[in-house]
Design goal:
The chain is an all-alpha fold. The chain has four helices and no strands. The radius of gyration is 31 Å and the shape is flat.
């Protein structure tokens, strides 16, 4: 009854090179020791990080006081200007 008339097209995949060709070992890329040291420090930051009385004040300033100061200054600016974003949120 129904004849399956599918045509088969044989296409040849085109091989493409990335940016003019692949990278080979002949390029002799040298690692930058400073970048490698930076990557190593990033990997062990959680083990090297310490909170002690000497840096506790700086941590509190960076994590709590400065962000709250930016938030408070922005909020006061919205109150002072009567910005529509302040008026819609219902906070007075």
């Amino acid at each position: 009854m129904f004849i399956n008339r599918t045509t088969h097209h044989h296409t040849q995949n085109q091989r493409r090179n990335m940016a003019g060709g692949g990278f080979t070992d002949k390029m002799h890329v040298q690692k930058n020791k400073f970048v490698e040291e930076w990557n190593g420090r990033r990997e062990i930051t959680e083990q090297a990080f310490e909170i002690n009385p000497g840096n506790l004040f700086q941590i509190i300033m960076m994590v709590m006081v400065i962000p709250y100061g930016i938030y408070d200054a922005t909020r006061r600016e919205l109150f002072k200007k009567g910005d529509r974003r302040h008026l819609k949120n219902g906070v007075v």
